[in-house]
Automatic annotation (TrEMBL):
Protein name: Autoinducer 2-binding protein LsrB
The Periplasmic binding protein domain, residue ranges: 30-289
InterPro entries: Bact_Solute-Bind_Prot2, Peripla_BP_I, SBP_2_dom
Subcellular location, record wording: Cell envelope
Transmembrane parts of this sequence: none
Amino acid sequence: MRNLARVFVLVMLVLLVLSATVLAQDKFEIVMVAKHEGISWFDDMRTGVEEFGKDHEDVTSYQIAPEGGDPAKQVQMVEDLIAKGVDAILVVPNDPKSMIPVIKKAKDAGIIVISHEAEELKGIVDYDMEAFRNEDFGVLMFESLGREMNYEGEYVGMVGALTMQTHMQWFQAGHDYAAEKYPNMKFILQEPVEDFNTEQTAYNKARELLRTYPNIKGMFGCSASSTIMQAQAVEERGLQEQVAVVGLTLPSMSKTYLESGSLRQAQCWRPADAGYVCAMIAYKVLKGEPLETGISLGKEGYESVTVEDGIIYGNAPLVLTKENVNDFPF
């Protein structure tokens, strides 16, 4: 009888191990490939991606990103995920064009691909997700810039890179809006300055711009790094009254500068929510659930999205001022 009991226990242990293995294999593996490792924006996005996995027992979700925001390294990360055989890849590309061949390879391997900040990839990915219509976000940025400049004078500004589609959409829409509506505002560069999402680069270039163009009245930032470093450079030179800085950044990064006046107004969307929503889209595709205009994707600003020509639009812009910056926990 003792031998039978031992055999029974061993059989049960084997069955438990096999059951756990099957359950692990049944989990969807959803991976976000973000732009840049080690910066606040994508640290916050990681929390949303991981939260999605905690909320869904049949999902393992996590985030990776290249050091330095290198597009080639980002492509290699996607290649590695294809080789691993993950179920879905979420990507915020540094250079959407350079990502096209590897995305097609992932799709050919049966992997769901969802992009963010990359409308250019519609029709190539399963869906692109935008927190809002990018043209509207750019107009919002340049309207605040115009107001703070009293709608006249010279201005300059930065993007993460000229290859970053959303940054260039914001700039172009905002620039065109200002040129038409406020003709006394003058953008005095040939194109925006690139900061490569790196604070030291943004800081050095902001100081150089202030030295080179002493008459500027405004600066805009399309990356969180550029906005904050422009504000810091302005503050260090005591130019808060003369030079208006506006742009993209996070509440936690902008609080000090908004309160000092070196940053007049900021705007953003919650990176964690964007990561969560991208994972939700991939999950619904994997489950064969429909994605239609009006559907809720589980986060504020995405309660009734618009699905249009392969792009899913939320309505989740946030405007940050010294009066409200403490209301946001990220």
